[in-house]
Amino acid sequence: MHKAGRHFLQIPGPTNVPDDVLRAIDHPTMDHRSPEFGALGQKAIAGMKTVFKTKADVVIYPASGTGAWEAALVNTLSPGERVLMCETGHFAWLWQRLATRLGLEPEIIETDWRTGADVAAIAERLERDTDHEIRAVCVVHNETSTGCTSEIAKVRQALDAAGHPALLMVDVISSLASIDYRHDEWGVDVTVGGSQKGLMLPPGLSFNAISAKALEASNFAKLQRSFWAWDEMLNANKTGFFPYTPATNMLYGLVTAVERLHEEGLDQVFARHQRHAEATRRAVRAWGLEVLCRTPEHYSGALTAVVMPDGHSADALRKVVHERLNMSLGNGLGRLADRVFRIGHLGDFNDLMLAGTLSGVEIGLKLAGVPHFAGGVQAALDYLGEAAGKAVADAA
Ligand SMILES: *Cc1c(COP(=O)(O)O)cnc(C)c1O
User: Fold this and answer.
1) What is the pLDDT, as a whole number, of residue 1?
2) Is the CB of 252 within 6 Å of ligand 1?
């Protein structure tokens, strides 16, 4: 049945795609062996390097983020090798399971799923690993199941302080182009990205940014790989081509999305996400509810996970919001199922969209009979108004 007005897609990915990015994708299918394609491929790769903040190699897979997770591991590691993985939430857990299935030996540093990676525990483990059995350290930058970020620069410092040669691998699938990230400056060896979150594209593309050290490791890595192999991809990429059929139309969208990010300015994009995250947390507290992330230094700019009061179902709330208000909110994943709901405030998003989103949550809390105080939306509006007023004053 037709529902008037736009659907509010406020899950933390896939996110809203700007109309001009959709228009760019809506283009006749092209010959992916033609000279025109080579130029497009080169432009797309060069654009992604600016988003990863790297001068190193970036490859683009026609795959969801999970594919790029697998690519990072199979290109650099050998069967039975030990990898140190930080279980910050459900996505980190999925990456561990993938590593196990590939025949790696993940060693897990747990958290309570309410904070970022435990850097002190990582440092301690690396110091003890004097034989350098750990071949890689894997961290999810923005844990999309919890709304907690991890401090990647500090993980790098822990590796350096221990003089440990392990590769550093980071999942930025939900932080790329929404939370500040620096592949080169932070000394990351493989960064894993995806298209459908901060990058404002539909699902379907994923990325590896690859340091020289990771590329060197790929010469000795013994895990089986074919589709994901970096060497054939990088060889074809020199002239902008791919070893197999790329997602041509998505690449038009990618070039446009990267242009839009730079028009706004990456720093402004990150500040916008932080502003929306802060406004959202103020709304949550005014409702008398709890933000899942318990350590402010790990608050995510991309999404906020909200804890339901005991005895109340997050999925019942999401259902009523979907049916009555035409808005999608994120569900609780893994051990957080039905215990939290997640508000995505990333990608192509502005103050008024946030105001609408939070209004939908406040109405939904009422409809679902969840105990709360009124005034969450007002608290967010007050903050957004202050921030806008400050921007006007600064510009004058
Ligand atoms: C969405 C997401 C993934 C999974 O990506 P898919 O595109 O669904 O394969 C992995 N890690 C994080 C942090 C994510 O947010």
Assistant:
1) 82
2) no
